[in-house]
Amino acid sequence: MTKGNILITGASTGIGAACAKKFIQEGYTVYGSVRKQEDADRLSTELGDAFHSLIFDVTDQSGIDEAAEQLNKDLADQGLSLLINNAGVAVTGPAELLDLADYRRQFDINYFGLIAVTKAFLPLLGTKENGSFPAGKIINMSSIASKRAMPFMTPYGSSKAAVDSFSQGLRRELMIFGIDVVTFNPGPIKTPIWEKIDTDTSKSDQSPYKNVLRRFMKLADKESTHAIEVDVFAKKVYKTFMKSSPATSDVVVKNKFFKYSIPSLFSERTMDYFVKKMLKI
Hints:
With 281 residues, the chain is α/β, with parallel strands linked by helices. It has helices spanning 14-25, 37-47, 61-74, 100-127, 154-174, 201-204, 210-224, 230-242, 256-261, 268-278, and strands spanning 5-8, 29-34, 51-55, 82-85, 91-92, 137-141, 180-186, 198-199, 249-252. 38% of the residues are buried.
């Protein structure tokens, strides 16, 4: 018998797939959103009968609504124990040179998509009138970039900062129902997002940003080699889920004391100086 039902968006690879695996190992049934049937088939083979795929894109409202309707039928008397909003992309590049369409795409996936999914599945998390199941929880995947903005990641960091604010306000609203909302703000995690960073250099190659952007991308590649293993991160997500009152925001990064805690004591101008020296601006 299942311990409960978990919904994870962006479950095809990376954090989403690792969390699906971990929760299934712990005895839960996982519903994972993927965009392609081939990913659904692969995950079903890898994870077994406890995994159920939901094929939709977080920017497709009709697809989200269909998935919500399906789960409302299947889980009417059980509800969801947890929603993990994980789907996301990283749009990067010089702020001046990016088109508004790039910013809109970033927010459509990372922010508005998260809101759309949350709204659609809140009834199964405990806002449903006369529901017969206990309140669930929500974990939103944000980023350390929301707290420590870096050059050339402005769209990504901005979208994650919006996720942080949304999560904070939503948590305080959902106290009415006993639904908790927390965020993870990880640094580099070993996932395919490092291979899929959406950086268009065609414009920057003919701009003053060219050399600085190249140095930034080299530093990002170097940082990725010291990233946290995704299975280790998934275990931390599970531990947070099991806590009755976890931290509302959890920054997860290797060498946290030196890479996050100490720098947090510095002024913004001091951090600007360090970035300037690091990127040789």
